[in-house]
Amino acid sequence: MTANDLYKSVTDSIVAQLEAGSLAPWRCPWNKSGGGLPLRHNGIPYRGVNVFWLWLTATLKGHASPYYMTFQQAREYGGSVRKGEKATPVIFCQPMSKGVTAEDGEEGRENYWIARSYNVFNAQQIDGLPDRFDARPAATLDPSQRIVHAETYVANTGAKIEHAGYAAYYMKLSDKINLPPF
Asked: What is the dihedral of CA 36, 38, 40, 45, to 10 degrees?
């Protein structure tokens, strides 16, 4: 699969999910394990289109683990991909340069990017991996487990706090703190 084919596949999949009525199929819930980002076998997060593609694939296939790896990487960890499991293609982009000679004879360098695709499997498609690749759902708290003295402290600061969405952040223009629902 070429990089252009993968970009088209990602776009087509997202459009299909939106047309099917899924509001935002790539948005991970607040309590998703791994912080919500898809991770390489070594814990480094994926970037670019791979993030959206792996989120969408995980949603459609029901994968809770954030970890992805190639067939060979799975073998190096002592794991084996289950028979019948299908890989997900991802893109690797790398900057390159080569020496060039201009028409006037001046030497220089030309910079460009190469893009290649390769296939990865979610850790839940692989048997025999070390425990660190297990998907452990984040613990959720019962409202009765609120920490009263911490909430009293925050309330006494006078900060304006809103509870909405999936992220915690400070809104500078309105001087408010947004937190996801408890």
From this structure: -70
Q: Is the CA virtual torsion 92, 83, 65, 21 positive or negative?
A: positive
Burial class, 167, CB count within 10 angstroms (exposed 0-12 / middle 13-18 / buried 19+): exposed
CA dihedral angle for residue 46, residue 49, residue 54, residue 60, rounded to 10 degrees = 160
| 146-151 average pLDDT score | 84
**Residue-by-residue DSSP string for 97-159:** EEEEE-TTS-EEEEEEEEEEEEEEEEGGGEES--GGGS--PPP---GGG--HHHHHHHHHHT-
CA-CA distance, 163 to 177, in Å (whole number)?
9
Model pTM above 0.85: no
Residues in the chain: 182
Q: Which residue has the tokens 């499997």?
A: 121
| C-beta atoms surrounding 90 within 10 Å | 24
- Between CA 169 and CA 182 the distance in angstroms is 15
pLDDT reported for residue 39: 92
Those residues with Cβ within 8 angstroms of residue 7's Cβ, 6 or more apart along the chain or in another chain:
49, 91
